[in-house]
Amino acid sequence: MGALNITPDSFSDGGKFFNSENAVSHAARLIADGAAVIDVGGESSAPGATSISQEEEWERLREALPKIVDIAHSSGAEVSVDTRNARTAAEALTFGVDYVNDVGGLMDPEMLPVVARSKAKIIIMHNFGIPVSVVKPKLGAPEQLMEEIIEWFHAKVDALVSAGVDKQRIILDPGIGFGKSQEYSWHIIKNVSQFKVLGLPICIGHSRKSMFSAISTEPESRDFPTAVVSAFLLSQGVEFIRVHNVSLSMVALKVASTLL
Ligand SMILES: Nc1nc2ncc(COP(=O)(O)O)nc2c(=O)[nH]1
Question: Which InterPro entries match (predicted)?
Answer without folding.
Answer: DHP_synth-like, DHP_synth_dom, Dihydropteroate_synth-like_sf, Pterin-binding_dom
